[in-house]
Amino acid sequence: MVSLADIEAAKIRISPHIIHTPLVLSPTISEMTGANVYLKLETLQKAGSFKVRGATNKILSTINTFREQGVVAASAGNHGQGVAVAAHSAGIPATIVMPEWSSLSKQEATRGYGARVIIYGKTLEESIGKAQEIARNGQLFIHPYDDNEVIAGQGTIALEILADLPETDMIIVPVGGGGLIAGIATAAKEKKSEVTIIGAQARVCSSAAEAIRQGAPCRIPAGKTIADGIRVAETGSLTLPIMQQYVDRFVLASEEEIADAMLLLLERKHVVAEGAGAVPLATLMNGSIDVMSGSNVVLVISGGNIESAQLFRVIRQSLARRGRIMHFSVILDDHPGTLAWLLAVIAQEQGNILNIHHTQGENDLPLLMARVNIELETRGPDHITAIKKGLVDNGYEIRIG
Fold this sequence. Notes:
single chain; alpha/beta; Rossmann fold; Alpha-Beta Plaits; 3 domains; 6-stranded mixed sheet; 15 helices; elongated
């Protein structure tokens, strides 16, 4: 098993090549939970996630053996980018195998860091198998989580957390295959045994939590999730014993809770977090974790690599779910001024128009009438109620939805 000494050696080895990321207090989340909540922003790490730490440690530990042949890895995105960045920095070639469902932005980013990308596999495990096959040609295979040097590299996050905040009481970590939490838990527990380590997973892909329950690695159906960075159907054989020894408990979050956490980070802290990075906050906010008032809780925001289109969808759906978006339609006389009067009422109620669509000549409309479909941004359910009342009081018959 990986030791604290291994992680401390990894820190010395990789420190010149990575960023000591900031640990930032969130007053808003602290007020909402009663604890002092800090964000460990691996979103600001090279390549946008923590993965470069483990990849750099693995490559620098073995570079003299594989300098000419290069390295190969399998990844849904962040591990591949981390390996690509680490390999480029070391001056060696890298090949990354990515599953078919990996995001286009992560595929292009990996290529942009200088790696050759191969798309193969319906699951990450199939991609790993392909990468291991390629490695038989003499390249170094870098596993995304089930590797001692990778685990040690990820564990350097805990050393930074405890250096910046020695009074840390709890660390909440996103979990896929377990490499990140195995490293963090080892370092944190060996440095400060009383710190609580919580593993956070997407409910639709809770392979680590299930492995802990069964006491052995097990394969589960990996459901689709916006937390694609931790969409792993089977936890690692090296990481599981470490989790069994050091992780206090595992908690789960739904897709809606993860999306709401992403929006909260964006709106209140201006942090763009991918789904996996927001899972620790999602589990904290959904009541799965009891925190003591005034305790120091650290959320590992593991990455910020998300496609713009997916981020847009997540924000809109989360806003709608929280009553921050209102859709309605109204039928108006089709003559000059009627639309302006309607918009004046909306402005009076301080609704912010996001979209408006004006249609004429539809079969279900009377002659000389038009339907207007409007999407508004609101402050919440009470504001929607006030807007409805304002419209009705001004004689408009509206249809919600």
